[in-house]
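Here is one such protein, fold included:

. . .
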Amino acid sequence: MAQKGKDQVRIRHKLLAYGAALVMVAGSAALVVQAPASAHGAPLVPGSRTWLCYRDGLTPQGNIVPKNPACAAAVAQSGDNSLYNWFGVLRSDAGGRTVGYIPDGQLCSGGNPGYSGYDLARNDWPLTHLTGGAQIEIRYNNWARHPGTFFVYVTRDGFNPNQPLRWSDLESEPFSTATNPQERGGPGTNEGHYWWNATLPNKTGRHIIYMRWVRSDSQENFFSCSDVVFDGGNGEVTGIGETGSPTGGPTGSPTGSPTGGPSSSPTTPGPGDGSCTVSVTITNSWSGGFQAEGTVQAGNSAVNGWTVTLTNPSGQSVSQVWNGNLLGNSGSTTQIRNAGWNGSIPANGSTSFGFLGTSSGTPTAPSATCTSP
């Protein structure tokens, strides 16, 4: 690669680390600005369906063209935003619920309609090769940091990958749990992750490793399916790229970064006279950037759709939103509308959204107002 091309790639990755989401067009000096990505994290090792399909489909130009047939089917059903937002398989109101909350057949998407394509029952998903009973370092991307507990399950013996995944297909107890594990790197990068060591179950053949990340500071939970085969492997991945040949062990990283796009379209508020208020808190900060969370609170009447207006301090701006849709930035003002699943709030209830931002100094929580509908 020419030195100029290398410099461009380095610049792109640095911008993406702060949520800028820029795609460098190969062979030209043009920059294509994409909509901001949303989300928080997903398993890197063993890789989730969304993470490995993202690696399979990302082109040097930044668009998504899946080669793996299962990944292509998932994108055909859910759209390529599901891979630009590979780290966004979440439900904002889960609160640790499992059976009876997420229907059988929808475990891999967590019941999130924006990821329904990743529930498809197929035996040709990208596959991680493992050894039963061996030690593994589980890695879970920390695109946005949150306190909480990870629960890691495996399917029972006799599991059929050609049948939709049901709760009864999983072993009754997780084979690994981790509360607030250690981190390397992040947030806002592909490579940053939580990590912890675990002993793999004594299994053979095809299985799914199913993970839940249950936040302790909100009702939001994350869900994922990682397709694995216990065949004596050491983390090699097959089923991604042109040939589907092994890509190496679990330390591999993608060649690009997500260009983003809202994971769902804003809902159109229905009739209703509920009022809302909002509070914003800085939850994490680093040199040049920060992470924040907003809580939208309904009054004595239910809210059916909400819009938050942020007034940012000088030198500060919002670059990326999750659990909401970024309507745009105008001067010091940022507007965020509810996502498709959290627009309806019962009387005296609440929901939350989060965002990343850039700052030229010490980050300060922006002032905020809420309107509905």
In short: The longest strand covers residues 205-215. Residues 108 and 225 are 5 Å apart (CA to CA). The helical segments are 3-17, 49-57, 69-78, 81-84. Residues 276-371 form a domain with the Immunoglobulin-like fold (CATH 2.60.40.290).
